[in-house]
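Sat 14:20. Reprocessing the chain from the morning session after the first attempt stalled halfway. Input below, unchanged.
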Amino acid sequence: MHFYPDANDLTRLRLTIASIFIKGGDGLEIAPWENPLFVAGCNIRHVEINPEHVTQPGQILDNGEVLATVPAGSLDFIIACHVLEHFENPIGAIRTHLGKLKPHGWLYYILPDKNFKTCDQFRDTTPFEHMLEDYRNNKPPARSDPGHLHVWNDETAYEFFVEVNKLLGHPYRLVHFSVNPPNLENIIMLEKVREAK
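Finished this time. Tokens:
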């Protein structure tokens, strides 16, 4: 049996962290579907891979892993809550997301933590080497949501973002990492400081 907090509890810490760093501008939230994050003073467009979830004006039908419809260097921030674990190539997705940001733009990722009662609790964490192989082989994105392909806990999530930063030539600062235990997740805020290698 899984415990899922109500929507108000789920968004409280997420919004607090977002409002500390994201101070307006234009951005995207990838696959928010029924639980979008509304950050005050921001123009946020929603990106969905499933045409059935594109129900409002201004939503974008695109694959959040590649964001083919989004020009490079055009965004102040990208929000992806419980999305990165669905991507075939999460390192490639981070590199792509960085490329869509303006200088000093923000990447706001939230990852489920297997240490809590999530659907991943009985699965092994995904080794970094596995994700590195997917990146080096330029594994293509899925055409629909494949479910959770990658699994992290707080330690492996932190190590993942440190290693990705090294791999890509230190294109970001990891400015925030926290565990949101009531909400089963790790919260990560990255600031773009240069283009990725």
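The chain is about 25% helix and 25% strand.
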